Amino acid sequence: MVVLVCMDSPTNYIHYTHPKIRAPPTNNKFKIPEGSNSITPINGSKHFMVSAFIDHRLDGVIRVISIINRNSLQPLYCVYCSTEHDCRTVQTDVQIHTDHFSFPFGASDVICKGKHMQNATRVLITADKKDSLDPKMEYLPIRNKVARETFKFNFTICISNLFGDYNNVLQFAQTMEMYKLLGVQHVVIYKTTCGPDLEKLLKHYETEGILEIVSWPIDKFLNPSSGWNITTHKGDVHYYGQIVTLNECIYRHMYQSRYVLLNDIDEIIMPYKHTNLPSLIEDLQSAHPNVGVFLIENHIFPKTQFEDSGKFKRAEWNNIPGVNIMEHIYREPDRKDIYNRKKMIVNPRKVQQTSVHSTLKEIGGCYQVPFNVCRIVHVRDPLQGNLTKDQLFVDKRVWDFEQELIPNVDQTLKLSGLPVGLLKCFT
To answer: What are phi and psi of 298, to 5 degrees?
Structure first.
């Protein structure tokens, strides 16, 4: 058994002390940001607020997921309201997440502590106390007001971030249909932009009910980086605000989903000793009852290496843009002395802060799932492009699902209005 402590370094805290209560305003019509998830400028600052939640684990404080400019720190105030005429103003603790990769803007939590917060319905973060009297200010609705013990979903996947002209339709359809077979009921995508064909597929899954699309117009407010390395990928914030969206997704589904999977759009968290994710997590949780974070190794299947027989090179998919994961069964070996990145299955109620490949602040510790039990099937550009096919490992796990996966993908593409060819019959 390997149990890991997930925090790489202590979280940065900026403390503003002694909350003060202000008299309630006489008139304060709530103005709520439009969209299912809006990025809202914090008045009098270079910062942004994203969404607000009651954190029942911390005596019912209000946690506002935010984007903070680390070079322009200042006292911030929290205005929270129970009714239109009952608002209070308190100072805040600003907690900047340690994984900001040196970009000027970083994922942050703005913590509001005060009286009767669990009765609040709306909250505003501001640099000016007087904003509590301004009816034009935009308030965030407060979520997670009830700490539920029953969940709408067993598994939710959080995917971030979709931007540019990404149009990898076939791989996305195969991944979604694979996850359905593995027992996933809900997928969340934070979308800035995407290609036209993928847009059709997203609308289909949204209509079907499995997909939740969260608008993420970060490019309207900042110059987001398209990568993680600030020296290579310039910009204001790491990878289109990826860490912000992952944290937002965890809190958004804290009392909606028993487990949350944090992985990318071209990755499949694949069980190898279990038929599906529910049976996998049941065994893992039974063996490690206090653990809330399960780390899954990422393994690269180069899209440049094709299976020799061509049995899955289907004419029906010739006009569908994207990668056919069924053709790529060759897996790169681990590289010596190089960290193998991981993604996670988490109990969201045991996570306070997360990064991309590990949590930053969690309850109960982490467990690294053995390679032979579960690993990520990640079909993409090779990391070890110099290796020949003979130096790669054959891994046909996705083929175990072919009888259901292929007709399901065909049907989905057809219903999405995409140019799938004549369908074959499967029995």
So the answer is: -90, 130
pLDDT tens-place string over residues 158-199? 998 899 999 999 999 999 999 999 999 999 999 999 999 999
Buried b (16+ CB within 10 A) or exposed e, 358-380: bbbbbebbbbebeeeebbbbbbb
**Which secondary structure element, helix H or strand E, spans residue 375, and what is its range?**
strand 374-380
Predicted local confidence at residue 135, as pLDDT: 62
Q: What is the dihedral of CA 377, 383, 387, 389, to 10 degrees?
A: 30
Compute the distance between CA of residue 416 and CA of residue 204 in angstroms, rounded to an integer: 5
Task: Give the contacts of 232 (CB within 8 A, at least 6 positions apart).
Answer: none
Name the pTM for this structure: 0.90
Beta-sheet pairing, 61-69 with 77-83: unpaired
**pLDDT, tens digit (0-9, with 9 covering 90-100), for 6-19:** 544 333 333 333 33
Contact between 282 and 155 (Cβ < 8 Å):
no
Q: Which two tokens stand for residue 301?
A: 């299947």
pLDDT over 60 at 109, yes or no: yes
In degrees, rounded to 5, the angle at the alpha carbon of residue 407 between the alpha carbons of residues 405 and 412 is: 90
**Cα angle vertex 145, ends 144, 148, to 5°?**
70
Residues forming a β-bridge with 362: 351
Cis peptide leading into 324, omega within 30 of 0? Answer: no
H/E element, 83: strand 77-83
Residue the block writes with tokens 């949350």: 260
β-strand partners of 331: 393
